[in-house]
Amino acid sequence: MKYVFIFVLLCVAGAAGLMGAIIGYRWLNDMRQTVKIVPGERGFAMPAGVVPRGGSAIIPKEQRDLAAKEPNPVKATPESIALGRERFTTFCVPCHGPEAKGGVTGLVATKFIPPPDLTNSDLQRQRTDGYWHSYIVVGGAVMPAYGEAVSSQEAWHIVNYLRSLVPGGARAAAKP
Predict the structure, then answer these.
(1) Are 117 and 123 in contact (CB under 8 A)?
(2) Burial of 151 (0-12, 13-18, 19+ CB in 10 A)
(3) Torsion sign across C-alpha atoms 110, 114, 118, 120
């Protein structure tokens, strides 16, 4: 009987030790050691030739000159400009400021490299609609990608809004 008691005692001690080891392992290996997912960045590479459902191929930022040739499929109507203004306010104002003047007018811009003045007519003339769309969707040198936050269609609306900020832009701010 004495040996059975010792055997049971060893089994209980072994189970307690195993439970302690599991708790210790989980304590040391928690979520801080997993892969960090940063908004605006892709956590994995998309397979070649993949096109999003209901969309078109997203041209990577390394091929910006090819994306710049893409025409704007969204007509610059007052509704399009209003939707673009709404999306700009949501996603772009923190850096570019409420008037899109760039510099340090945005809350976030004061802590980073100042963004450009998007109302500058020379800058607007140099950039095509496809270029602006590409910059919004896949990001740029400092600007993060917003392709996962806004649809391609919404990005075109933002482009129409940006064009409306310059006198005579966005087909004269979509005259009716």
Answers:
(1) yes
(2) middle
(3) positive
